[in-house]
Amino acid sequence: MASNAMVLLCPPTTTRHHIPLFSLHKTTTSLRRIPYFSSYSTSTRSSSRSISASSRAMEALIFDCDGVILESEDLHRQAYNLAFAHFNVRCPPFSEPLIWDIEFYDVLQNQVGGGKPKMRWYFKENGWPSSTLFDTPPETDIDRANLIDTLQDWKTEAYKDIIKSGSVEPRPGVLRLMDEARASGKKVAVCSAATKSSVILCLENLIGMERFEGLDCFLAGDDVKEKKPDPSIYITASKKLGVSEKACLVVEDSVIGLQAATKAGMSCVITYTSSTANQDFTDAIAKFPDLSDVRLKDLEELLENVVAA
Questions:
Q1: What span, in angstroms and rounded, lies between the C-alpha atoms of 241 and 181?
Q2: Which of 66, 106, 216, 253 is catalytic?
Q3: Which of 18, 176, 207, 229 is 20 to 30 Å from 290 at the Cα level?
Q4: Is 161 one of the catalytic residues?
Q5: What is the pLDDT of residue 56?
Q6: 78-133 pLDDT per residue, tens
Q7: Distance (Å, rounded) from C-alpha 254 to C-alpha 260?
């Protein structure tokens, strides 16, 4: 196992609800806790730079979807568990369907990008499961791929049903920032590691059809060979937008997304969630608990400071 991999230990006990308990131990240095603050401090702005100058620095504003447009981590976790229960996915030595609890999934989703890679990593580390699809754990690459594909497809449909329920709201400030960017002539894009069908559904239901159809670029995990933290999705977006990497500002919620953006040569601001707040966002140019108090001019000035540095 690589030195930055997670080690998952499954004790032989279960809860009174017969849910396996998972104790997670990481071999990496523990994540540094970041301070909480409500907005970008105006004291750090340079009054010598005008808005017109900063406007030239930013040409495109790119949003991640999960965790940025909507706080989706637990929704995905619920959908995975529904898929595991539906197909009676049982990992050795347990006889009950697999359940990813909140504590475990918070770490998993921040260290492994994409649904299929998450399951593949988990099964490689903890043993391939039996299920209604395969009475015994699959041993060939083809059977294992079929298992992963079927679980992911079913999970995606379960996630769509949750989004369609009407109970999910966009995170504060996102829609306003999108509208401000478009009104000021900036290009607006969404780049998500999730499957295209699930991202489209989220965008249609949460930002509305008019904003979705008005996006200058939309890329999902299906559109690139490598998932975040690989920079492929942001490099591709830059080319499609016709904008240099330095003129793009990315809004992400996790260290995986931050790494993808910075590896692509883009600056990144973080709007963290409860499950990503403890991550090390040293390479971000700013961190916010949400975007409710963040205006486009704040982001313009942040990027201008980076470009001028």
A1: 14
A2: 66
A3: 229
A4: no
A5: 58
A6: 999 999 999 999 998 999 999 999 999 988 987 887 889 999 999 999 999 999 99
A7: 10
Distance CA 82, CA 294 (A): 36
Q: Which residues does residue 217 pair with via DSSP β-bridges, in sequence order?
A: 189
Determine which one of 64, 216, 230, 253 is catalytic. 64
Q: What is the DSSP string of the chain?
A: --TT-EEEE--S-B-TT-PBP-EEEESSPPPPPPPP-SS--GGGS-TTS-HHHHHHH--EEEE-SBTTTB--HHHHHHHHHHHHHHTT-B-TT-SSPP---HHHHHHHHHHS-SHHHHHHHHHHHH-PPB-SS-SS---SHHHHHHHHHHHHHHHHHHHHHHHHTT---PPTTHHHHHHHHHHTT-EEEEE-SS-HHHHHHHHHHHT-HHHHHT-SEEE-GGGSSS-TTSTHHHHHHHHHHT--GGGEEEEESSHHHHHHHHHTT-EEEEE--TTTTTS--TTSSEEES-STT--HHHHHHHHHHHHH-
Percent of the chain predicted with pLDDT > 90: 71
Q: What are 279-292's pLDDT values in tens digits?
A: 999 999 999 999 99
Question: 257 CB contacts (<8 Å, ≥6 apart)?
Answer: 64, 67, 228, 229, 250, 268
**Strand pairing class (60-63; 23-26):** unpaired
Nearest CA to 266 out of 60, 65, 53, 110 is that of 60
CA of 148: how far to CAs of 72, 83, 103, 118, 156, in Å? 21, 11, 23, 10, 12
Distance between CA atoms of residues 169 and 134, nearest Å: 38
Can you tell me the mean pLDDT for 28-44?
34
